[in-house]
User: Fold these one by one.
Assistant:
Number 1:
Amino acid sequence: MTAPSEIRIVNDAAELFKAAADEFAMLAAQAVHRKGSFSVALSGGSTPKRLYTLLASKDGPTVPWSQVSFFFGDERFVPPEHPDSNFRMVNETLLSKLPAPPENIFRVCTEEASAEVAALQYESVVKDHLALGSEGIPRFDLILLGLGPDGHTASLFPGTAALEERKLLVIANWVEKLRAYRVTFTYPVINQAACVMFLVSGKEKAEIVREVFENPKAELPAQRVRPVRGQLLWLIDQAAASLLSGERI
Ligand code: 6PG
């Protein structure tokens, strides 16, 4: 039985990132109060940059950064200083500006000989640092996700092998249309999270948002994100929600 999902549509991008920052801070405070730590898997791409910038700024909400463990839901198999690196983006917009102990930052080690080795190595890092949920699967307090124009999320792209992975938590996924490997979380670990938060902004995402919410036959990777014992929260701005008719699937 999947947990209830919530769709929160806000007026514009500024409200979207404020709402996301407040949600992040609230979940962090609750987890730290409950168990002394907060584990979050960050997403890449362009959308979350403004969230990370806000969180790192003086206008951002209070977060107990020293008790936060940072992970990555997916990574491009490029060096950490490469312009396409999710770690680089997150480090520049957030981590390098925080009082976060470096031992609490867990990036995908893309210096490994292959994406497969990097994925296996990262899976053991995740297992070593997180409490296990049901079925012995690590349970993140929060996993941040984005939505690609083709319905992909993390690096779970349509038609790729990672979609069918049931055992591995982190996998090297060959993405033919990018002619590149990505290292990505798989559904078993994503759907084990206490909270999964999608962040979607802009009219260029309106078509795919309508597909995700109103086309049950679409079988899009993002539609298969259904936390088994956790909250699913879609934070969407009005522009991205502009084609929704209100008939949700
Ligand atoms: C990545 C992301 C990916 C992203 C979507 C949306 O590494 O690129 O994890 O899943 O969230 O592609 O990207 P934008 O936010 O740039 O539209």
Number 2:
Amino acid sequence: MLNLKLPWKWKECGLNSSGKKMAKIFVQVVVILCLGWWWWAIMVDAENLKYKDPKQPVSVRVKDLLGRMTLEEKIGQMVQIDRSVANATVMKNYFIGSVLSGGGSVPLPDARAQDWVDMINDFQKGSLSSRLGIPMIYGIDAVHGHNNVYNATVFPHNVGLGATRNPDLLRRIGAATALEVRATGISYTFAPCLAVCRDPRWGRCYESYSEDPKLVQNMTEIIIGLQGEPPANYRKGIPYVGGTKKVIACAKHFVGDGGTTHGINENNTVIDRHGLLGIHMPAYLDSIIKGVSSVMVSYSSWNGVKMHANRDLITRFLKGTLKFKGFVISDWEGLDRITSTPHSNYTYSVQAAISAGIDMVMVPYKYAEFIDDLKLLVKNNVVPMDRIDDAVARILSVKFTMGLFESPLGDYSLVNELGSQAHRDLARDAVRQSLVLLKNGKNDSDPLLPLSKKAPKILVVGTHADNLGYQCGGWTIAWQGFSGNNATRGTTILAAIKSTVDPSTEVVFREDPDSDFVKSNGFSYAIVVIGEAPYAETGGDSTTLTMLDPGPSIIKNVCESVKCVVVVISGRPIVMEPYISSMDALVAAWLPGTEGLGVTDALYGDHGFSGKLPRTWFKSVDQLPMNFGDRHYDPLFPLGFGLTTGSVKDIVARSTSAGTRGTPSFIAMIVATIAVCVLQVHF
Ligand code: BGC
Ligand code: BGC
């Protein structure tokens, strides 16, 4: 029982001792009833909180929650911080709305899916313990599979996917990526990149599906895979995320990132409005129609105006004309870079960016400074409260739509989705479809591909033949990518060759053999794998577009001595014209990712080549920029070029059916037998 000190003197009330006892019990009962009633009232209120009720429409929940929030809580929702500065206390005390992993920002080296879920759930518990318990969203660049994560399936980079020209494949890759991302407790990916790269000197050209805006539009189908397919009656333009196996997608970088002068990263895109809308904008419209939930702003400028401060394009056009109802996120330190010396007038940058219409800010480190600056700007009526409310309402809409309030924590039961065999098989198929066959035989009647699996002795050479990191490119494990075979799991091209050829075939690997060695070993043929070393963003800007040394001398030493197929691993067309005549065959493999078997599937004819160039292949860098439709168009290989081969199986089937259509069947059998012999025992 409560031991209450009664605040008056019993004697003065004229009570005897039993009366006193009764009164004391009476008061105690009243107090307990009051406390009970108070507790009950809180509980009932909590249950009646409209924003916590999943049966309420999203707009009702948003309005209800917004009405309960303080300015600090609202601004907190607009903040995204990197995981390296996040912990449960920061999440709770600053009401942080979102956390991210920048490139290579991982909980621990070689972290398992469980380790990711542990970390993210810990941050989330901090958010849930805040006054209103608003869950945070965790974002990451899963731009070719869940590429920051050890043991994830790494798909080809976008340039390779553009070569497949297969939207259905893109949708399936999106769905697989969403599952791998969710396997680590993450609900948001900064993908797809919708850049229309108009100059391969740009270090991000491999993040672009194509120089052709139409092709980029078709590839937005990946959004449906990532976020799920909105139901038939769903209103176009409203963000959609179909539950706990799907993730928020992000169309980036709005807009004109791929059109900068000389392909210099984060530079100025000089083009009239008609050109901007015709080349760089169309894919955003497709994305919005498909329900994309977020759009990231580009570091670049349009005709001298920083996109992060461009109210006309972000608020008036994207949110107004295109009716985008999701949230707009800044790029990493994008506000800092509004001033030409980054961070030199941060308060101004905050004002310019928020006024332009940015809703969530990838700060990502100095969050207290951002919060203080924005608070001050609102208190002094520089940034109006309804701008803040618009930003927060958009963020909350997405959080409610995706069911985050109902399922805020990572789900350990999905951990085995990471790097699953089904996803690796899909990636292998994607690699196969992404390969573009540029040359096959010194003349048409003497094709080198498909290669024989039964040759007695073959040579594999080159800087990229046995290097998983090179094969994956930038944005893999580390921001700038890695070199070697240990940082994640996958199959190198060398390993793929070894497991494809007949056990009787001797496979000799030398990274950089001299020509005497090549000549004197009786090789049936050589596979030369060369290309670019990994890079990301500005690190990849190049004025020369040359292959990694000693690529050119490897090609010379090998191709002048034995029949050779050259496989180029690169994020874009690179200088190739001077070497091409010495090669028997040439394959552009882009940045295929972890599944090297996709390359051998086509080299050895288990599947045909079908990829088509998603970009113009230039003769010399002096021609750049050069895109299809240009008046001075004079490419080595034009956009859309790509030789095809049937699979060995198809070729045999075709010759057999040709036979049954009129040729006596014994002749058909002979034709088929010859076809098999020519293809399998090529030399
Ligand atoms: C890139 C974005 C990326 C972000 C987060 C920026 O540097 O431009 O594409 O999403 O970092 O890693
Ligand atoms: C981060 C990237 C980010 C880049 C921007 C790097 O340190 O890891 O995610 O895109 O900085 O400059």
